[in-house]
Design goal:
five-stranded parallel beta sheet, about 15% strand, Aconitase, domain 3, globular, seven-stranded mixed β-barrel, 34 helices
């Protein structure tokens, strides 16, 4: 079988009590124990997990086996590596020392947009435009594949990173020159957790952390608590894996699992296919967990066989995991691990069809309640579950002409219906369920209104093979669901434009138009700026809502449409049975489909356009200063061999004062680039036409563009200005307001300064020229959402030195530290509002004097004589070292320079 570090040979009863996910951390610590980066004390802390995890501050190092990237986050990571090579050369070191030391896989999947839809040539046209827009980026990535060792680039058009990871890249057990150990991965996308469904420990980190791992650094993490989630029963007819995951998401978000592992167990696991498990694991960021883990069992091995892994590899995986006590048998009497605190339980038989929305994935709505819930949202106060529409405007109907025919739009009208994203397009049962529903709908003569932008974006070409094999693809195409690309499209905001008349009607009549997608994210302005109601649903329900043309419908009592014979057709008339789905999955999903799809990647073939890209054969990248895609970032251009001393925060201005649930979608540039925005103006000044702006995601390799788009979301709400949007108040020194002493004036009242309202980037530039440091004030769950490095890089480039929030999302907090930005947390019960802070004050924090400590409390002095305490969220000694160096990559660069 091979050599391995045996957990059983420890002969320690504590091992069998550990959750399976923690056993992976234990094996890694034992294997990498060198009394330098990993110490015996760390091994003991993991063995004592039952007690050491309770405090929430036990630090352990973890060395993942590999790194996974998608191109949006992967491009800036490789840009940073290229810039580090420059800095290494400038400082007199060997630039080739900057090289991945663990396998690094990058899948190009985020660049394709739904520019064309509802036509047989949509895929080819979208891929052509993708290469036209991204030629520079793709050429740079191909240079990276050549220049850096141990790096695989999967060409565009191959699929979504997480599905490719599940179907092809995952090893489950590594065999490195005869040494066996569990596969584990960190990825530059939060939905890396999808691989947890395969029993591989994986989660999302920022590109900053991923680069450090590539360069041989361990991840410094707090030993997590593990929430046990017991599944019983089986899904009932009509319920899908999507419904199960939306139910699980709502339960876990309510329970509170941020920073924790969730491990699924119980007899219900056995009834779930591997694809169903991956669907649940994929949504871990939505329920807030670091991982949603399913241990390996016979179903895992069955999936590996179906997806084309060879028999020798399967035998090794099974033998190794059994020898290590890392494989579940689900046998009667099998002992379950010990978990942290209360165990949650879900009977899968209670799961009912549902959707989530209209603005957050955790806001689950049973399908039977959807019409009532949507109507309640319409008139509710503006917020996560409200649009603030006045009652007299609820029934308005707006006529418009589309291709010579008149139609009407109302509140709730579906204008985008997309089968998209890694979450569900990886799952044959829901994909083929959508195909069967479409087939029945077409047979009855149902249609989809032609102005609705329908699209099909499978996570890999394998889906296309089995949809064809099952004879359901033609029906989907008849309803407008033609393949638009093999990539992350509508879910990431690459939905493309709507018809101009549709857009004009929505804007003119202030309509709450809807998008329905089989994705995992539906935050405001993410899917499309004009779809205010965005609902996550299973692929069959996406088709159903497209046919209905509205989300304002009760499928139980209202027909979904009128058939070709004039008959009313209800959803129940076309919904496929569980047996129908199981039979078509068994007959249509075959191993040879996976072999055919991935053999091209393995052999180096694949996308012919990719093969034709030229590659510069240099170890150091030749930067083009005129490029608006790839730019040498400033992070390393002035780096010296030794770190500069930490400085105090003195009379810092507040750039933004924001509330709860500010996501990385609000912070990090994403989506389209507006013509009048700072980034748009920058591109126009450099001769880039509006039609060639492309998206922020595709320009992540240019720090000048990205800094200008930071905090640029149209829905961000900054308390310092009256209206939502990317504006702030520039307050010159000496003009901050004084606190009124009159007790008759309400709390927080102020004499207003004569500040000037402007774009956030422009204000940051003014402050930079003034020599003014900046801070950000925030509420709870600051930085939730996707793991985006630019959500930390952008504020750092704007001059933000400190973020003071009520709480932080795990990845974003770590990334702030990785960029040299200090995360401070208000003490319990306090907030900017409770302290009467408006953001127009000046803030001073003494960081020098005594040696900085993990979890240290700092006194924050506010202009006007006020002060309050805030706790440092630098959580580990290693993070403290990163902060002292000005960031994690500066720390790594200096270590490699002196090695």
């Amino acid at each position: 079988m091979g050599k391995y570090y045996s957990l059983k040979e420890l002969k320690d009863p504590r091992v069998e009590r550990l959750p399976f996910s923690i056993r992976i951390l234990l094996e890694s610590a034992i294997r990498n124990c060198d009394e330098f980066e990993v110490r015996k004390e760390d091994v003991e802390n993991i063995l004592n997990w039952e007690t050491t995890s309770v405090s929430g501050n036990t630090e352990i190092p973890f060395k993942p086996a590999r790194v996974l990237m998608q191109d949006f986050t992967g491009v800036p990571a490789i840009v940073d590596l290229a810039a580090m090579r420059d800095a290494m050369s400038r400082l007199g070191g060997d630039p080739k020392k900057i090289n991945p030391l663990v396998p690094a896989d990058l899948v190009i999947d985020h660049s394709v947009q739904v520019d064309f839809a509802r036509s047989p040539d949509a895929l080819a046209k979208n891929q052509d435009i993708e290469f036209e827009r991204n030629y520079e980026r793709f050429a740079f990535l191909k240079w990276g594949a050549s220049a850096f060792k141990n790096m695989l680039i999967v060409p565009p058009g191959s699929g979504i990173v997480h599905q490719v990871n599940l179907e092809y890249l995952a090893r489950v057990v590594f065999n490195q020159d005869g040494l066996l150990f569990p596969d584990s991965v960190v990825g530059t996308d939060s939905h890396t957790t999808m691989i947890d469904g395969l029993g591989v420990a994986g989660w999302g980190v920022g590109g900053i952390e991923a680069e450090a791992v590539m360069l041989g650094q361990p991840i410094s993490m707090v030993l997590p608590q593990v929430v046990g989630f017991k599944l019983t029963g089986t899904l009932t007819p009509g319920a899908t894996a999507t419904d199960a995951v939306l139910t699980v998401t709502a339960m876990l978000r309510k329970h509170g699992v941020v920073g924790k592992f969730v491990e699924f167990f119980g007899p219900g696991c056995k009834s779930l296919s591997l694809a169903d498990r991956a669907t649940i694991a994929n949504m871990a960021p939505e329920y807030g967990a670091t991982m949603g883990f399913f241990p390996v069992d016979s179903e895992t091995l069955k999936y590996l066989e179906v997806t084309g892994r060879d028999s020798k590899q399967l035998a090794t995986i099974e033998a190794y995991l059994k020898a290590q006590g890392m494989m579940k048998t689900h046998a009667e009497g099998e002992t379950d691990p010990v978990f942290s605190g209360e165990v949650l339980t879900l009977d899968l038989g209670t799961v009912v069809p549902c959707v989530a929305g209209p603005k957050r994935p955790q806001d689950r709505v049973a399908l039977t309640d959807m019409k009532k819930d949507f109507k309640a949202c319409m008139t509710a106060k503006l917020g996560f579950k409200g649009f603030g529409i006045s009652p007299e405007k609820l029934t308005q109907s707006a006529p418009f002409v589309f291709k010579g025919q008149e139609y009407h739009l109302r509140h709730g009208a579906v204008v985008i219906a997309a089968i998209t994203s890694c979450t569900n397009t990886s799952n044959p049962s829901v994909m083929l369920g959508a195909g069967l529903l479409a087939k029945k709908a077409v047979a009855l003569g149902l249609t989809v209104a032609p102005y609705i932008k329908t699209s099909l974006s499978p996570g890999s070409a394998v889906a296309l093979h089995y949809l064809k094999k099952s004879s359901t693809l033609e029906a989907l195409e008849t309803l407008g669901f033609f393949v638009a690309g093999f990539g992350c499209q509508t879910c990431i905001g690459n939905s493309g434009e709507l018809d101009k008349d549709v857009e004009a009607t929505i804007v003119q009549h202030d309509l709450v138009a809807a998008a329905v997608l089989s994705g995992n994210r539906n935050f405001e302005a993410r899917v499309h700026p004009l779809t205010r109601g965005n609902y996550l649903a299973s692929p069959p329900l996406v088709v159903a809502y497209a046919i209905a043309g509205t989300v304002d419908i009760d499928f139980e009592t209202e027909p979904i449409g009128v058939g070709s014979q004039g008959q009313k057709v209800f959803l129940r008339d076309i919904w496929p049975t569980n047996d129908e789905v199981k039979k078509v999955v068994a007959a249509s999903v075959l191993p040879e489909m996976f072999h055919a799809t991935y053999s091209k990647i393995k052999s180096g073939e694949g996308n012919p356009r990719w093969q034709q890209l030229p590659v510069a054969e240099t170890s150091v990248f030749k930067w083009d200063d005129k490029s608006t895609y790839i730019h040498n970032p400033p992070f390393f251009q002035t780096t010296k061999a030794d770190p500069a001393p930490i400085v105090d925060v003195t009379e810092a201005a507040c750039l933004l004062n924001v509330g709860d649930s500010i996501t990385t979608d609000h912070i990090s540039p994403a989506g389209n680039i507006g013509k009048a925005s700072p980034a748009g103006r920058y591109l126009l000044e450099r001769g880039v036409g509006v039609k060639d702006f492309n998206s922020f995601g595709c320009r992540r390799g240019n720090d000048e563009v990205m800094a200008r788009g930071t905090f640029g979301n149209s829905r961000i709400s900054n308390k310092m200005v009256a209206q939502p949007g990317p504006k702030t108040l520039y307050v010159p020194a000496g003009e901050e307001m004084a606190i009124l002493d009159d007790p008759s004036v309400g709390r927080g009242s102020r004499s207003m300064p004569s500040g000037e309202e402007m774009d956030i980037f422009d204000a940051a530039e003014r402050y930079r020229k003034d020599g003014t440091q900046l801070i950000v004030l925030a509420g709870q769950e600051y930085g939730s959402g996707s793991s985006r490095d630019w959500a930390a890089k952008g504020p750092s480039l704007l001059g933000v030195k400190v973020v003071i929030a009520q709480s932080f999302e795990r990845i974003h907090r770590s990334n702030l530290v990785g960029m040299g930005v200090l995360p401070l947390q208000f003490l319990d019960g306090q907030s900017a509002d409770s302290l009467g802070l408006t953001g127009r004050e000046r803030f001073s924090i003494k960081l020098t004097g005594e040696k900085m400590r993990v979890g240290q409390e700092f006194e924050v002095h506010v202009s006007g004589g006020k002060s309050f305490k805030a706790k440092s969220r630098i959580d580990t000694e290693v993070e403290l070292e990163y902060f002292r160096h000005g960031g994690i990559l500066q720390y790594v660069l200096r270590r490699l320079l002196k090695a």
